[in-house]
Amino acid sequence: MPRFFVEPGVLNDKFITLTGANAEHARVLRLAVGEKVTLCTGDGIDYLCTVSDLTRDRCSLVLQQSTPSASEAALHASLYVALPKSDKMEHIVQKATELGAAEIVAFPSARCVSRPDKASLDKKCERWQKIAVSAAEQSGRGRIPTVRTATFDEVLREAGAADLGVLLYENERAYSLREAIESHALHTAALITGPEGGFAPEEIAAAQQANVNICTLGPRILRCETAPLCALSALMYAAGELG
């Protein structure tokens, strides 16, 4: 069923009109009068509607019912990713949204190859948020993950406050992500992954001071675009969110 994200004010009435990009999307989908669509405002509620009229620049709907979105994870998972080079972050945002991440946060670390200035980073973040919207629509999400940036210190403070805060480190050998997940009752979780060059020793020490678990993802060294998605998939599976 087609899904559209709209501003909350649009749903103040039983009769709803989609305009702009949403109306264009409805036209591309070749929707017909009588077809069902789902509207979301990002609050985790699905609003079932029926198409009542279509023009070139408008799609009129009638609201039928609202139900909690069945696609939203009970676990609030935050994914913190050290800024990767090239367009790898776009892939991470798209797939992390599909997997159910509640928020995706990019941060600079000591060994990051990519070091955009603030203006460039703000522009990138706007694009990443649009990718999250598109991925949320495609995957049937009831919420759009927040995509933002933070400093490494902010990342550690936030991760340390979660029920489970984990930093994945290629040089850790003893403590696994699986052990960390199994030893915590989870309502909130934070996963931190590093850049192409890995984390610097002083960053690992700072994470330990911040009460963040240092964990391994196994004997193989994963690429910076693979590790966050692997860790998020493992977390969601353990939480019963992947069937």
Would you kindly provide a written description of the structure presented here, covering whatever features stand out?
The protein is an alpha/beta fold. It has two domains: 3-68, Beta Barrel (Ribosomal Protein L25, Chain P); 76-238, Alpha/beta knot (3-Layer(aba) Sandwich), CATH 3.40.1280.10. The protein has seven helices and eleven strands. The chain has a six-stranded parallel beta sheet, sandwiched between helices. Strands 1-3-4-5-2 form a five-stranded mixed beta sheet. Strand 7 (103-107), helix 3 (118-139) and strand 8 (146-149) form a beta-alpha-beta unit. Helix 2 packs parallel to helix 3 (118-139) and helix 2 runs parallel beside helix 7 (227-238).
Q: Please give the count of helices.
A: 7
H/E order of the elements? Answer: EEHEEEEHEHEHEHEHEH
CATH architecture name of the largest domain:
3-Layer(aba) Sandwich
CATH class of the largest domain: Alpha Beta
